[in-house]
Amino acid sequence: MGRTERDWPLAARYAELKTHFQPIFDRIAEGAPAREATRALPHEQIGWLKAAGFGALRVPVDQGGSGVTIPDLFRLLIDLAEADSNIAQSLRGHFAFVEDILARPEAVAKPWFARFVAGEIVGNGWSEVGDVKLGERKTQLVPQGTDFALEGVKYYSTGAIFAEWIDVLATRSDDGTAVIAAVDTRQPSVQRSDDWTGFGQRTTGSGTTTFTTAPVAAAHVFPFETRFRYQTAFYQTVLNAVLAGSAAAAVRDAAAFLKARKRVYSSGTAPVAAQDPQLLQVIGRAHAFAEAARATTLAGAEAVQTAYEAQFLNDEAAEKAANIQAELASARAQSAAADLSLRATTDIFNALSASATDAGLAIDRHWRNARTAANHNPLIFKERILGDHVVNGTEPPFLWQIGTPDLPKTER
């Protein structure tokens, strides 16, 4: 790996960084309903985060970053998701790429750290749609002298439209191996489209990206087999943070709406809505759900931190065990956070009046965003895998893929 885990330590600094970033989160939250209503991409808001060093949270302090632990990163991501869950999810690919760079040799890592500190971020380019067989990719990395050129189309390119780089999963055309290519977006050969049509998480920039003989330096190509091993757990934990933040935002907005409500129902139990015990119970229960979603997400983040540290131990058995626990912990958190956030974002309406459904308020966005985030990495399969481990001790899979099955001709 090029160094030990203690060479560039990461410290617990959440309280300090919360103070630094909260004013930015508050500004982001103020405009979230309007962006939702007009489907306005948050270029400016992500620019604020870049300028404030949010993309360099995991970069070691002696390299110019904040040097936070994984749990503290996810505490801040939950806070950001409460302000705007779209922005938190749009940074999913960036923080995964940073995580991968943290384990690379110093000569590889330091130039990337400098880019992150300068405010550059990385988007995602992994998924392909259409008639792509399970486990295969049509996107090709073609040798061009000592460097390469990328050809292909990616969908669900979360965050790519805001990013200076895209983390692309491709196949080398010469030897058929899977590789990761970091592609500079500041060239005409990379075309990004905002054509994501989901009913939630509308402004994550999760559209189509087309690469037309896009140059890629050899130094920016990594064999997929060297990718950080806890990546699936890490990716899922970002989605869990989105769920927890959506629930917290729903409770925040519902509480403010109830507190400001002037009219009451004749069948209510108090002269003021904000003092009605039944309505307060609804908010209290939703708050408990949101806090529980946050807690289970952070418990999963602790397991991911252990997996990060295990890669520097030079102990294959310990690293494998830590990765198994990270995968299981993130799946447990996914199951709990999805259920809790969907209940919280739905139940709050029981404490509100019909006027709370006004589209201009966009309170429904919290449920739509949570429902959309919960549809990643199908929950039912994760729960089956958890059950199989609990009952039979079966090791969980570490890589999720999607595509058309390669069935026998008689079954096609």
TrEMBL record:
Pfam families: Acyl-CoA_dh_2
Domain Acyl-CoA dehydrogenase C-terminal stretches: 240-377
GO biological process, one term: L-leucine catabolic process
Superkingdom in the source lineage: Bacteria
Gene Ontology molecular function: 3-methylbutanoyl-CoA dehydrogenase activity; flavin adenine dinucleotide binding
Ranges that cross the membrane: none
Keywords carried by this UniProt record: Oxidoreductase
Official protein name in the record: Acyl-CoA dehydrogenase C-terminal domain-containing protein
